[in-house]
Design goal:
The protein is 46% helix and 8% strand. The protein is an alpha/beta fold and 303 residues long. The protein has two domains: 8-172 and 255-298, 3-Layer(aba) Sandwich (Rossmann fold), CATH 3.40.50.1010; 175-252, DNA polymerase, domain 1 (Orthogonal Bundle). The protein has a six-stranded mixed β-sheet with strand order 3-2-1-4-5-6, sandwiched between helices.
Amino acid sequence: MTKLTSGYSLLIDSSIYIFRAWHVWPQNLFDASGMPINAVYGFAEFIYQLIQTHRPERIAFAFDEKLTHSHRRRIFPAYKANRPPAPPDLVHQFELCRHFVRALGLGMVVRPGYEADDLIGTLAATERALGYHVALVTGDKDLTQLVHDGDLWWDYARDRRLGLRGIERVFGVRPDLIADQLALAGDKIDNIPGIPGIGMATAARLLRPFNGLEALLADIPRIKTLKIRGASRLMHLVETHQDTVRLSRQLTAIDCHVPLTEDRPMEPGKIDHQELSNCFDALCFNKLQRSRWWRLLDKWPAC
C-alpha cells in the first residue's frame, strides 16, 4: 500500500469495509459466547493498516443508519428497497465496529435519516472550508461527485486513487456531473430509475455538450442534432422519461449540509484504554495481537 502524502483529511465510508470483511474474513471466527466476529475482526485490521501506513492527523468514520425515515425514501419509497436486510449475524457486528472506533478515540459520525454519503459530503465541505484537501476512502462511485481539485477518491482495498482528472477520464464527465450522469443512467444497486437503454457512457455523451442535466432537459430537441449514434432515438427517450430523470436527480445528489453535533469529529481524541481492552477481549485477541495494537497506539496522537 503506497503511503498517502500528508495534508489529507480521511473520510471513511465504513459500511463498505465492514461488508468486505464479512465476505472476505473466515466465517469461523467467534467470540467467547459463540457470536460471529469476522466482520469486526476484518474492520479492525483495516483500521490498523490505515493508521500504521498513513498516520492520518484528521480522520472520521461515517456510518449508515436505517433508511426507513431517510429523505430519499420520502421522495421515492422504492429507494434501495431491492436490498435484502443485513443478516442478523452481521447486524450486531456493526455496533461492535462502532464501539471499536469510539474506544480508539477516532471521529465517528452517524445521523438518523441520513446516509454515510451525506455525512461524508458534509464533512468534506467543512474540511475544505478549513483549508484541507479530503481523501474519500470508499469503493462507491457515487462519492466521486464530491471530489474537488486536490481531493482524492480512494478505493483502499484496490489502492486505486482518482483525482479530478482521473474521475473525468474513467467516467467521462467531471465530478460535478456525476449525479446528473447517474440520474440519466439509473442505478440498479440503489434501485434508482433511469432511462431504459441509457448507460453511464451514453449519459456522459449526452451531458458533455450541455454541460449539465438542467441545460439538457431545457433543450431536449437539440439532442437530435448531436453527433451521437441514435441521436433521434435518444431525444425521444429523454423526452419520454424526463420526469423520471428529475426524480432520480434528487436521489443521486449527496447532501452536503447535514446538521452535525459532534465536536471536532476529524481530530483524534483520547483512547479509552479500558474500553479498548474490552474490545480486544470480545475479539479474543491473544497477547501478541494486543501487543501489536498497543505498540501502534503508543505513537498515535490520541494517546
